[in-house]
Design a protein that fits this description.
By secondary structure, the protein is mainly beta. Helices cover about 0% and strands about 50% of the residues.
């Protein structure tokens, strides 16, 4: 959903580089796949069509952080009061 974001930090030889892939429109999501030494981050439409893809060598990826889109509170999301000790 719009607001999904993945942050990728890679080793660039003498330092690090940071890349962001985000869902830019409503209904799109960001998917992460990895295999055979490659990490792939793709922005995908509702129908599953890839819009844009970023590929990184798995050996160079230092961190991959997924930031899900915030969702509204639901009725069953009860707030638990803090317990006071005497």
């Amino acid at each position: 959903m719009k607001g999904d974001r993945v942050e990728i930090v890679i080793d660039a030889g003498g330092g690090t580089r940071t890349y962001d892939v985000a869902a830019t429109r409503a209904g799109r999501r960001v998917e992460v796949t990895h295999g055979r030494g490659v990490v792939e981050v793709t922005e995908v439409t509702r129908g599953g069509t890839p819009v844009r893809t970023a590929r990184f060598m798995a050996g160079r990826v230092l961190a991959l952080v997924e930031h899900p889109a915030p969702r509204p509170a639901l009725e069953d999301d009860a707030v638990t009061p803090l317990r006071r000790t005497a």
